[in-house]
């Protein structure tokens, strides 16, 4: 089974911090990858209409945001950007091979507390 997971939080979907599933706001389940991908693409089009900042990673992950959509982080004493994200997963697990992804490209100039806690590659 394949799922399209919608997330809202301070990490884009490709970070997959240990608690990434805590940011889940909705999950849609599909029998086939093609069905999941079509739904993912449709949802991306909807987000594109409302969020000027967009980043895709492959064909199965996307993040959408507006500058200034932030929350206060007690741990780091700063405001951190919030992201609306979509990811295709298989049986609730990270889908695809992200081993070639250069995560350093995604580091914000001022990393927030989630990064201090560590991240793992998919």
Automatic annotation (TrEMBL):
InterPro entries: DUF1033
Annotated Pfam families: DUF1033 (PF06279)
Name of this chain's protein: DUF1033 family protein
